[in-house]
Structure formats: structure tokens, C-alpha cells
Amino acid sequence: MLTAYGAANGCLTEFEAAATPEVPPDSVWLDLVEPTAAEEAAVEAALGIDIPTREELAEIEASSRLYQEDGAAFMTANLIRRGEHDEPESSPVTFIIKDNTLITIRYHHPQAFPAYVKRAMKPQTTALTGWGVLISLLEAVVDRAADHLERAGQIVDETSKKTFGAKRNLAGVHKQNPRRSVNLQELIENIGEEGDFVSKMRESLVSIGRAVAFMQAITDQVRENKLMKEHKARIKILQRDIVSLTDHATFLSGKISFLLDAVLGLISIEQNGIIKIFSVAAVVFLPPTLVASIYGMNFAFMPELQWTFGYPFAIVLMVMSAILPFYYFKSKGWL
Question: Which of 8-17, 57-66, 189-198 shows the highest mean pLDDT?
Fold first, then answer.
């Protein structure tokens, strides 16, 4: 789908879709979402550039996603969105700047795009040129990334409280019931999901940072004017935001790794507790088993077999031999 936007009265305006794909002459932004061959051909004919196909985008190496060709600058970055079931989806998005027109090519729907369009259709204080729209769009992407990381941080904090809060409860509220009130498997799944998301978000921020650095290198070569000074200042602010978010993503990754190790440690403690119970039970029942084995032997001369109270004596002896080790272990704090 090809959507063309122009600028009027300081607002972003959307051109009406034509029956056949065409590029309005005063477009400042052409948004190609899963474009057809006809739409790609129309844009290529209007701007004189070669638009990469979806297969070409998938084959482009990370080191070859930033280049200039036919008087246009091509920048490809991985953008993240929350898909179905809150799972992270990563897909490359290509930004092309040719003269005063921005072209975006994407095959998924990052939430930052409609959010920017909704905001840009109100009067803007920034210039709605191709460069201005590109910078504003990347600012919306970075703002969205900040929201995602903030949400991931909240989930990590909640998981941390569940993990270590349950440990404290074992000595208090749940003292009578040693079984944990928290599903450790569920905690591991939550930690794994957020770890995967934060990792993909960090990769996305790195790719966006490389694109912004490429933008700065291009703008440094352009003749200085008031508008370009504004663009350069916004690009520098955008770079600082990306660096701070990348550092925050790195911090979250470290915290997630710590939580994963902590949950695995708690699982090991629970497993050791279960093994300890079986070990103590085996030791407690070992003396009664020995007594029963002795009086189960088939020797002809065993004095106790002739006693009137021989059977009760053996039962009492087995019970006592089980009770004494139990209280001994309890006095040592092993139970």
C-alpha cells in the first residue's frame, strides 16, 4: 500500500489514494507498506531511484544497510513492535531520502508510525520537509522504544518482588506450608520473554543509532543554513537519547540475567530440600528395617521367638528406633 503525505499550513496531510499508483509532485513522505510491484515502479519512476525489494532487504548485511546511490541516501534499521500474545516482532524498515522527499519501506506495522501521523496532522513547530519528517519519525520510534523498555523494567521489578518476596514468606506466612506460593516455572518463562525482548530492543537501538550517525555524516556535508542547523541539533539530541536507552537496555539485560540465576538457584534449593526429605526418611526407617530383618530370619534357636510378648517387644523396638533418629535430626536442625 502506498500512502503519500504532503505539508499544508504547518500540518502533515494525506493525499487521496488514486485508482492507479502515482506519486503527487509535492509529496514530502511516501509510506510503502508491503508495496506491490506497481507501487514500487511508480515511486522509482517518479524519483529515479531503485527501491530494494523485501528479499533484498532480508539479504542486506548489517554492514551494508547504509549507503548512497542515485543522489539518495538509503538507511535500513530493525524496528520492534509487540505482536500477538505480546511477543516481540523485529523487521527491517528502510528510510530513503531523495531531495525533499522521504520514502519508507516496511513489511510490518510499528506503533510509532500511526502515532507520529496522528501527531503530525496537527500544527507543527518543526519544518515538514523530508529530513524533518525523517527526524520526527525516528524521534517517535525512540520514544516508543523508551516506553517498551519502561514496561519491560516494570515487569522485571514485579518478577523480582515475586522471586525474593516468596523467599521471605517461607520463614513467615508460609512457614506451616513449605510449598512455594509462586510458580517458579512461570517466573522463568516471564524472565525469558523479557530477556528476549530487551535483547531485540537493544539490537534495534544499535541499528537506529548507526542510521542516525549516517544521517549526521550526510548533514555535515550539506551547506549550512538555519533549517539544517535545526536538523543537526535534533539529530544530536536523538543520538544522546539512543545512547541512554541502549545503556538502559544493557542494565535491564544484566538484571534479567541476575534474576534468572536467582530463580534457578531457588529451584536448586527446593530440589535439595526434596532430596533431603527422602534422605532423612530413608535413614529414619533404616533401624526399623534392621530390626524387622533380624526377626525375620529363619533360625531354629532365636530366644525372642518363644517370648509371650516377643511380637509387641519387636514392634516397640522398631518404633523407638525410628523415633530416636527423627528427634536427633530435628535437634540438629536438619529437618
Answer: 189-198
CA–CA gap between residue 233 and residue 241 (Å, rounded): 13
**Residue pLDDT, tens place only, 300-323:** 777 877 788 888 888 888 888 888
Which grid cell sits at 304? 525372642
Cell numbers of 170, please?
517461607
Q: Taking a C-beta distance cutoff of 8 angstroms, is the pair 150, 249 a contact?
A: no
In this predicted model, what pLDDT tens digit does every residue of 20-44 receive, in sequence order? 677 777 788 888 888 888 888 888 8
Confidence of residue 167 (pLDDT cuts 50, 70, 90): very low
Q: Which helix (H) or strand (E) holds 33?
A: strand 29-33
DSSP 236: H
In angstroms, the CA 261 to CA 14 distance is 51
Block residue for cell numbers 535437634: 331
Find cell 530492543 and name the residue: 201
- For the beta carbon of residue 212, count every other beta carbon within 10 angstroms: 22
DSSP string across 61-112: -GGGSEEEETTEEEEEEEEEEE-GGG-EEEEEEEEEEETTEEEEEESS--TH
Evaluate whether 234 touches 216 at the Cβ level (below 8 Å): no
Sheet holding 2-8, edge to edge: 11-14, 2-8, 29-33, 101-106, 88-98, 72-82, 66-69
- How many whole angstroms separate alpha carbon 193 and alpha carbon 166? 21
